[in-house]
């Protein structure tokens, strides 16, 4: 009786206090998307990542930096897996600030080892060009966004491995621009977004239907853009996700086997005493 | 205590051996990331990627210095005189015997590409100096010739060559 | 450990060493032949689990330190470089971050076990106090480690926690400036936290050695709370306790691996993936879950200084537990009334933890005050009085008797 109560108490203790808490600014729960990379055997959808990259490159990169990402990441396994030639071509499209042999500041064509250059030379310029707030860097954005799940869902999330709050939020937010409801006080510099906490978002609607052309026949709707760019940003934030889950499976199997062996060994050893 | 039959013995021993073996495999597996993390990381390897050098701006007789994998690489556009001096040497008398032909690419005698780290204790030798029209190392006085070979001084070996290839007549790729 | 051991190793080389530094004898008497009560249940394996977690944290920490840069402009980037470029860097980082959470989970189980079975009572008072010291060092280490990431939550948690000291009358502000090394949390703060974060785990290891030494002087407590009376009551530590500890260590690692490989960011806060911005305070500042109960206690008191005192005394009061509990009976197994109050205490701790994650408004404040009151009342009122008035159940004659009774 005591053991069961103890186990329950400890379990709830460990789990109940882990609920991530957000301010009581009103936030509408984004709808759950189906992601190719969710779950214990999840993998990124290569075509989706390539489409998402296209959106980033053509639209988002005009305001958002992604400074932790390098061109060579685009060809690494577990990601959009462009080939070397494509990566060099993409890199060469960019102008990178560098110094020549005499120490003068020059611009040269990008190389695979370079990081994606930021759209603005520094933060002050980014702020000035965007109404006083610099657009956030996108390297870890998919892990820096989320929403509160509430009791008891945050407990179920441990078992179901739901870690996609960020991409769900981003996909919803892209698609969440609408006219403000009657009586909502929207400042002139803001836009109304259903899913942004507080509804007043500084970024105007970034994507319109048909804005980015897809060459694999996928529909060019805003919903699709939202999902594709969210998937790309998730990869950009967590490029080793596929490797992590793969090794995780091997480790879990190993530990289950070892714990089974240890259990029987323990029983055998203790049989001498019982 | 109950007596244990020999069948129980082997079953118990097998369990202990299996557990021990699986445990040992786990311990070894744990060491892999701990040791691997000290190897060069992806950005270091990317920074050490091959670099292409345009040879056209290098005048005859000029030596330039570039960096590859954080090491200084001298590129020497040799004159006819430099090449003759390098070739007309009794190879057997050299401290580190090596004919000039083995230190250049065939058909590109005028281009000498070597790593500018003195083989004595690692200083960077100075170009166009010394008694042999090559390099002079100011640290302990080693002197290298127009093929980068050691002639005088404490250095034991010739200046090493990096891996490189001619992409075209006026461009090389180092690494 | 009572006098020189008479143990002689069979290996010649070890015999040579034994004459000069009796380490084989020490290991033998402390971890092989050491008499362990035979009735220990699985709650007793968490000491070994804690040692394992300390080792894991130190090893992963040392290799992470090979790649981390403690400068305000480079810290966040260096962590991302570890995650992206360093071979298995993502694994080492997730092991270390989730390892801290597992470390605290194990320490709470270990502490509650001690409270339930009366392991803090005479003659184990010093053992218990050493444990409280270890716990305090763990909290300091964990706090500083979290700051090193230099995300939004890192920076603002550092600001909030260091500002607590300004509550001290008179010297408060001077102390805070001294802690910061500047006029606000900044680069000097980050650097000194890095230095101390590397140092304190070794201090913890040292106190753990004292903790195990104190344990071996008194011997393990056990679920009955009565001391071993004869050889029938104990078994040698190896192989009996060793294999039991080993089994639960692997089960513990299963839970650990589940977090590391499948939900590595579950226990963290998304805001810490935003680089620190001294000009922008996040919507809410929340510590990691293992500090939440104390955060709730701090916020439940409207006065700043009294709140800080309550915070530190809620941990400090643990050190007085051996003297606050007046009962002559150790184990809660035989103290039915104590058991009820104990479980209420556990509920209060969990409740405080949950409330620490909520904004301090409305019903949450009232509940936090109720639970805080019960937290202190448990130590200052319930335990002293219970020992005088409680009717305890009859104790078994010996450990082996209780084991046989359980079988019957």
Give a quick rundown of the structure.
With 175 residues, chain B is an alpha+beta fold.
CATH class of the largest domain in chain B: Mainly Beta
DSSP E strands of chain A, number? 4
CATH topology (fold) name of the largest domain in chain A: Cytochrome Bc1 Complex, Chain D, domain 2
Question: So what's the overall shape of chain B?
Answer: elongated
Indicate the low-confidence ranges of chain A by residue numbers. Answer: 11-23
> Roughly how much helix do the residues of chain B carry, as a percent range?
25-40%
Structural class by SSE content of chain A:
mainly alpha
Mean pLDDT of chain A: 88
In N-to-C order, the SSE pattern of chain B is HHEEEHEEEEEEE
Report the C-alpha radius of gyration of chain B, rounded.
28 Å
Topology, please?
The complex is a heterotrimer of chains A (274), B (175) and C (408).
Chain A: H1 2-16, H2 46-58, H3 84-92, E1 95-99, E2 105-109, H4 123-129, H5 153-160, H6 165-174, E3 191-192, E4 200-201, H7 222-237, H8 241-270
Antiparallel strand pairs in A: 1-2, 3-4
Helix pairs in contact in A: 2-7, 6-7
Chain B: H1 6-36, H2 42-47, E1 51-54, E2 63-68, E3 71-77, H3 80-87, E4 111-115, E5 126-127, E6 133-136, E7 143-145, E8 150-152, E9 164-168, E10 171-174
Antiparallel strand pairs in B: 1-10, 2-3, 3-4, 5-6, 6-7, 7-8, 9-10
Chain C: H1 12-20, H2 23-32, E1 35-37, H3 46-65, H4 75-84, H5 89-117, H6 125-148, H7 152-163, H8 172-180, H9 187-218, E2 234-236, H10 237-262, H11 292-300, H12 304-316, H13 321-324, H14 336-356, H15 362-389, H16 399-407
Antiparallel strand pairs in C: 1-2
Helix pairs in contact in C: 3-5, 3-9, 3-10, 4-5, 5-6, 5-10, 6-7, 6-9, 11-12, 11-14, 11-15, 14-15
């Amino acid at each position: 009786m005591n053991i069961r109560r103890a186990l329950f108490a400890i379990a709830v203790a460990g789990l109940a206090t882990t609920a991530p808490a957000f301010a009581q600014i009103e936030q509408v729960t984004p709808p759950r998307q189906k992601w190719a990379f969710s779950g214990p055997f999840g993998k990124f959808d290569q075509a989706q990542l390539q489409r998402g990259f296209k959106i980033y490159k053509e639209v988002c990169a005009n305001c958002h930096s992604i400074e932790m990402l390098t061109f060579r990441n685009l060809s690494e396994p577990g990601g959009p897996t462009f080939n070397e030639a494509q990566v060099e071509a993409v890199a060469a499209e960019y102008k990178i600030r560098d110094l020549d042999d005499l120490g003068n500041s020059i611009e040269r064509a990008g190389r695979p080892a370079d990081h994606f250059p930021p759209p603005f030379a520094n933060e002050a310029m980014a702020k000035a060009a965007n109404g006083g707030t610099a657009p956030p860097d996108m390297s870890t954005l998919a892990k820096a966004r989320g929403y509160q799940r509430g009791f008891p869902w945050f407990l179920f999330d441990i078992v179901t491995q739901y870690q996609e709050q960020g991409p769900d939020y981003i996909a919803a937010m892209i698609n969440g621009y609408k006219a403000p409801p009657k009586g909502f006080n929207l400042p002139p510099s803001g836009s109304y977004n259903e899913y942004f906490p507080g509804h007043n978002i500084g970024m105007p609607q970034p994507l319109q239907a048909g804005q980015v052309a897809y060459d694999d026949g996928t529909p060019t709707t805003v919903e699709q853009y939202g999902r594709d760019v969210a998937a790309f940003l998730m990869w950009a934030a967590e490029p080793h996700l596929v490797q992590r889950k793969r090794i995780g499976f091997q480790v879990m199997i190993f530990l289950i086997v070892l714990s089974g062996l240890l259990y029987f060994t323990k029983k055998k050893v203790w049989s001498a005493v019982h | 205590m109950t007596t244990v039959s020999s069948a129980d013995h082997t079953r118990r021993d097998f369990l202990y051996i299996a557990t021990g073996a699986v445990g040992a495999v786990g311990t070894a597996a744990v060491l892999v990331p701990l040791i691997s993390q000290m190897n060069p990381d992806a950005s270091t390897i990317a920074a050490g990627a091959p670099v292409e050098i345009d040879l056209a701006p290098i005048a005859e007789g000029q030596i330039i210095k570039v960096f590859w994998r954080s090491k200084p690489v001298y590129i020497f556009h040799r004159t006819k005189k430099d090449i003759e001096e390098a070739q007309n040497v009794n190879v057997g008398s050299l401290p580190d015997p090596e004919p000039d032909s083995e230190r250049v690419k065939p058909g590109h005698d005028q281009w000498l590409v070597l790593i500018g780290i003195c083989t004595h204790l690692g200083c960077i030798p100075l170009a166009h100096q010394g008694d042999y029209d090559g390099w002079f190392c100011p640290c302990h006085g080693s002197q290298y010739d127009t093929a980068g070979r050691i002639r005088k001084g404490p250095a034991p070996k010739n200046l090493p060559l990096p891996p490189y290839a001619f992409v075209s007549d006026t461009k090389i790729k180092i690494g | 450990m009572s006098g020189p051991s008479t143990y002689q190793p069979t290996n010649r080389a070890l015999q040579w060493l034994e004459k000069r530094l009796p380490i084989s004898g020490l290991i033998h008497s402390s971890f092989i032949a050491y008499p362990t009560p035979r009735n220990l249940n699985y709650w007793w394996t968490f000491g070994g689990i804690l040692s394992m977690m300390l080792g894991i944290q130190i090893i992963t920490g040392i290799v992470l330190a090979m790649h981390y840069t403690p400068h305000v402009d480079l810290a966040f980037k260096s962590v991302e470089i570890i995650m992206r470029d360093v071979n298995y860097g993502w694994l080492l980082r997730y092991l270390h971050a989730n390892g801290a959470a597992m470390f605290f989970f194990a320490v709470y189980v270990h502490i509650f076990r001690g409270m339930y079975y009366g392991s803090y009572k005479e003659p184990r008072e010093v053992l218990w106090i050493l444990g409280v010291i270890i716990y305090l060092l763990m909290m300091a280490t964990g706090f500083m480690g979290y700051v090193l990431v230099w995300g939004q939550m890192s920076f603002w948690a550092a600001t909030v926690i260091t500002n607590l000291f300004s509550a001290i009358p008179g010297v408060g502000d001077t102390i805070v400036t001294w802690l910061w090394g500047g006029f606000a949390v900044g680069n000097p703060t980050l650097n000194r936290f890095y230095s101390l974060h590397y140092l304190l785990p070794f201090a913890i290891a040292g106190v753990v050695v004292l903790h195990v030494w104190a344990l071996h002087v008194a011997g393990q407590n056990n679920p009955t709370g009565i001391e071993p009376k004869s050889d029938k009551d104990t078994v040698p530590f190896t192989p009996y306790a060793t294999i039991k500890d080993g089994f639960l260590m692997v089960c513990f690692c299963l839970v650990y691996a589940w977090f590391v490989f499948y939900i590595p960011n579950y226990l963290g806060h998304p805001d810490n993936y935003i680089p620190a911005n001294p000009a922008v305070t996040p919507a809410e500042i929340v510590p990691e879950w293992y500090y939440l109960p104390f955060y709730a206690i701090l916020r439940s008191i409207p006065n700043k200084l009294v709140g800080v005192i309550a915070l530190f005394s809620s941990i400090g009061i643990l050190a007085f537990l051996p003297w606050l509990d007046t009962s002559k009976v150790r184990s809660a197994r035989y103290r039915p009334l104590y058991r009820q109050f104990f479980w209420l205490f556990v509920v209060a701790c969990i409740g405080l933890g949950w409330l620490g994650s909520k904004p301090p408004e409305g019903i949450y404040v009232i509940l936090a005050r109720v639970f805080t009151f019960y937290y202190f009342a448990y130590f200052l009122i319930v335990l002293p009085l219970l020992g005088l008035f409680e009717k305890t159940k009859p104790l078994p004659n010996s450990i082996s008797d209780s084991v046989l009774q359980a079988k019957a």
